[in-house]
Write a structure and sequence with these properties.
Number of helices: 1
Organism: Alkalimarinus sediminis
Radius of gyration: 26 Å
Order of helices and strands: HEEEEE
Number of strands: 5
Pfam families: DUF2782
Protein name: DUF2782 domain-containing protein
CATH superfamily of one domain: Protein of unknown function DUF2782
Keywords: Signal
Distance between the termini: 74 Å
Shape: elongated
Strand content: 25-35%
Structural class: alpha+beta
Strand order of the largest sheet: 1-2-3-4-5
Helix content: 10-25%
CATH class of one domain: Mainly Beta
């Protein structure tokens, strides 16, 4: 009886140690980097749109048609959109002043 209790106690300690070691070394959830753009993906019938937002502002739209080359729509100063062949997105690393 004493040997059975010792064996059960030893097995319990091994299982407890294994469970604690797994939870102790589990990776913490990754926090989203505020410097990275938020990307929203929208699918259409013949195109897929990737909307890139920085600090909540829509900066660029990547358009991937099923047929043809990928292109980008970049915000114009006049409130419209300009078609570009390459991405113009620059994400600031530091914010000096914000209001």
């Amino acid at each position: 009886m004493k040997k059975l209790l010792f064996t059960l106690f030893f097995a319990f300690q091994l299982m407890l140690g294994a469970m604690l070691s797994v939870t102790a070394f589990a990776a913490p959830p990754e926090a989203s980097d505020p410097n990275e753009p938020n990307i929203t993906i929208r699918s259409g019938e013949d195109k897929t749109f990737y909307e890139y937002r920085v600090n909540g502002i829509l900066k660029e739209i990547k358009v991937v048609p099923k047929v043809g080359p990928t292109y980008y729509l970049v915000a114009d100063d006049g409130g419209g959109w300009i078609r570009e062949d390459k991405s113009q997105l620059l994400v600031p690393s530091w914010v000096i002043f914000r209001w």
